[in-house]
Design goal:
The chain is an alpha/beta fold. Helices cover 42% and strands 19% of the residues. The chain is built from eleven helices and ten strands. Helix 10 links the parallel strand 7 and strand 8. Helix 7 packs antiparallel against helix 8. The N terminus and C terminus are likely disordered.
């Protein structure tokens, strides 16, 4: 995309609040001055389409609680498909000038927009200059929102260094669902976050698990992550909680003793 055209696109990101009153718009401008909140969510695989239907209601609840939400799907979770959208374009197409931003960043509800970015991340992976270009574009787009959730393969978590805001808290969210490979999948994502981006705190987003099953899985993951990766692990059932606010701490005792889950 020609530099001037891209600059114009990023200077005018989607503005769903345009029809609201002056007072509300003024308040949102104050929020914009501080910048949006960033929540990196790390996933074990490069393609994670099966998680789309499970994550969609969680993201919708997060938008209802926190305001205008931009979901950047760089992990091919296909949240848009789960929302019934036929998304044709990726951030890569915007950068290449193949489509305007408004055709790639699509509203899934009154408060949530989805921007596929798997191809853009592929193009920026391993190329420092290209990685900075993708990061700069994302930060420009994000300025029009209150919150940003960045869905990212854990193996590529080092790319977060290009977006300092996303690493501001030194933490990341990892989805935790059931299944025979649940703990392996979660630990793989945690290992990637520690190795690639030096993330120390992980908040597990519990998806569709009962209290007993969630407690056992959370305690086991916390013990292994602490022992082998030096990571701290908490768990929550909402994204607002996982991103900070009501996370439940899972504290592993010394090897050979019982693992304990407590409330924080």
């Amino acid at each position: 995309m020609p530099e001037a055209t891209l600059a114009q696109e990023l200077a005018n990101p989607p503005k769903p609040w345009a029809k609201e009153g002056d007072q509300a718009e003024g308040l949102r401008r104050l929020v914009q001055a501080r910048g949006p909140g960033w929540t990196p969510m790390l996933l074990a695989g490069l393609r994670n389409a099966g998680l789309g239907p499970r994550l969609l209601p969680v993201l919708q609840d997060f938008a209802a609680a926190r305001g205008r939400l931009l979901v950047v799907d760089a992990a091919r979770v296909q949240v848009g498909a789960a929302a019934g959208l036929a998304l044709r374009y990726d951030l890569e197409h915007v950068l290449a000038g193949d489509c305007p931003l408004g055709e790639a960043c699509v509203a899934a509800s009154e408060r949530m927009w989805i921007l596929p970015a798997g191809r853009a991340l592929d193009g920026g992976w391993g190329a420092a200059g290209r990685g900075r270009e993708v990061a700069a574009a994302l930060m420009g787009i994000a300025a029009g929102f209150d919150e940003v959730v960045l869905l990212l393969p854990a193996a590529r978590a080092s790319w977060l260094r290009q977006v300092p805001q996303a690493l501001g808290t030194g933490s990341a969210v990892v989805p935790m669902a059931g299944g025979a490979e649940a703990s392996t999948t979660v630990l793989s994502a945690i290992r990637g976050g520690v190795a690639e981006a030096e993330i120390a705190d992980f908040h597990l987003l519990i998806l569709g698990l009962g209290e007993a099953a969630a407690g056992r899985l959370l305690s086991g993951v916390a013990a292994i992550a602490g022992r082998h990766f030096g990571a701290r692990v908490t768990g929550a059932r909402t994204l607002a909680g996982a991103a900070g606010g009501d996370a439940r701490t899972a504290r592993a005792r010394a090897p050979g003793t019982e693992t304990e889950s407590g409330s924080r």
